[in-house]
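User: I want to check something. If I give you two sequences, will you return the structure for each one separately, not as a complex?

Assistant: Yes, each is folded on its own. Here is the first sequence with its structure:
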Amino acid sequence: MNRQQLLTAVVSVALLAAGLLVFSSLRPPEQSSIGAIAPGLAETPLQSTGLIRQVPDVPIGLFKYGGSTAFARLRSLHFTEEIARRHPDFLLLYTEPEPNRQPGTGSGMAMLIEGKLAIAQTSRPVRADEREAAKRRGFELGQIAVARDGVAFYVHPGLPLKQLSLKQLKAIYTGQVRNWQQLGGPALAITPFSMDTRDSGTAEFVQKAVLGGAPFAPSVRQARDTTTSIRLVSATAGAIGYASSATVLQQKTVRALALTPDANGPYLSPFTGNDQARIDREAIKSGRYPLAHQLYIVFREDGTDAQKAAIAYAKMLLTDEGQRFVEQAGLVSLH
């Protein structure tokens, strides 16, 4: 197989895989500076340029990446193709987790530490136990913030509720509230869905930000990934679930809820317009939306081409051109 054939195959596989997937001692995400590598993980701030083709020090080779489903729409756009056009010897291959794991931040981090990925896309910062696992293997981990996102909670479209407080969400997901009538809705059992916190960074974030670290109730049903969660909620009367707002964007089979950290409001949605038509970028970027957070590129600091590849990939995302792809994917630019 010649290089052009290899390039075509890799891009095709990456796009096909994307279509199938539709804290530690670090500073909190809201305090991280744009493009900064988190303290304790690397020493210097990341510098980026305006165009993807201008990114320097791009290694030659095939590099595997994977992780958070919050990046799924970004994978399914033309970002990987654009990288291939501008850096034809820099090939990226999206890689699914092993059969016993589900796609997400947790599985992506495990694969990164085990050397099965060069680049992990994550929806939370690196955890202390992951840093320790990396140290036992002889290297540190680096992370670079590349975008912002908001976690959207959504319900079956037939449910006549439009908003909830974080306290009410906690009551649902810890099993204290089991019927919508308890929250001013119809006499209908609540069926909550969640992803597995072992694999999903979004589930970890919800457990921390909404549940205050409390475990999900046994009554909470598990979905393989966010795409599956949307399908299950849309098919189950009284159901509720959550996902990256980029995943829920323009979904017509579920209805997103406005949220407030305080029962006195104001209630804010991560979307503007009807049917989740557009991301409310200002609400997420400013942090006014209560479940806004950052997304990261994580890599092994081992001095290999894999580290160079991850840093180059993050630099490409942080170019003005790359951040436009971020916005087109339903995420929020850091610029």
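And separately, the second sequence with its own structure:
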Amino acid sequence: MEPRHDGRVTIYDVAAAAGVAPSTVSRTFTRPGRVSAATAAHVREVAARVGYPSKDRAEAPASARMLAALVSDIGNPFYAGIFRGAQLTAADAGYEVMLLDTRESGRRERSVLERVLPLVDGVVVASSRMPDASLRVVGRKVPLILVNRELRGLPSIASDNAGGVREAMDHLRDQGHGQVVYVHGPEAAWSDGIRAAAVRDAAAALGMEATTIGPFLPTFEGGWAAAIQLGRRGPSSVIAYNDLMAIGLLQGLRSLGRAAPRDVSIVGFDDIPAGRLLTPALTTVAPPARALGAGAVADLLARISGTRPPEPPARLLPTRLIVRGTTGPARG
């Protein structure tokens, strides 16, 4: 890594010159008992040779062995799976994870990050609502990985949203549906844009007619509002941004006399437990929530230890369509 533009030598310069991880340099000066005597002597010799300031050597930050996981809505059960995967993987490496709810607000997300950065070794940000530029600023301050969002210059792990949509659209077409409406979630949600575009692309390839409505809140209430907008006469099939919205849509349309799958087929996203308890149970695209959280933390810890480059390609994990009772043949 290049020295800072002001010429000041950093622990990253020392690490590069010594052929060790930045965390090893930090531990040499803050927790020498956790570094072998030979390695510590080597790092100290290199630090002196490259001009690493003695004041910084005395005050190099110790690892807190604490990570932060930010989620956009703690009320959405989908994030429980992500957090559990993150928590178990972190625990195996001797780390704890604090869970922080940003309540679908990019402004709150930025405020929470500013407060927590001095306390943690790295950050997992799930379904961020922050602007790209703000995320890049954070990524320059602390190791960070995005979940369910891709951004050039930052590491990320996401489910294959487009692949999941294509599978759902193939299923609806096989059931004889020629029309589909996609119900938008939050405008700031990266995954919402990917899913909407995938619906349009798949519809064109399959000879279906696709339209969209929204945006709506990614909640039961948002789905109910979408049902009222669709009204008693609407398309034969609907794909909702997430399961919470799909459940609200199902109940809202039922209140208007339209039942699934008799009058309309409904597909959600996320495979939350509530979708399995409905009558009929919800057809949904299931992302690997726990694997997303586990993979994010494994990747983050590799960056903290310096064993992985800071800007790898984005990782995509496969989804699967779970066909249940809310989809069926189109009415003739």
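Because they were folded independently, the notes below concern the second chain alone. The chain is about 45% helix and 15% strand. Residues 247 and 277 are 11 Å apart (CA to CA).
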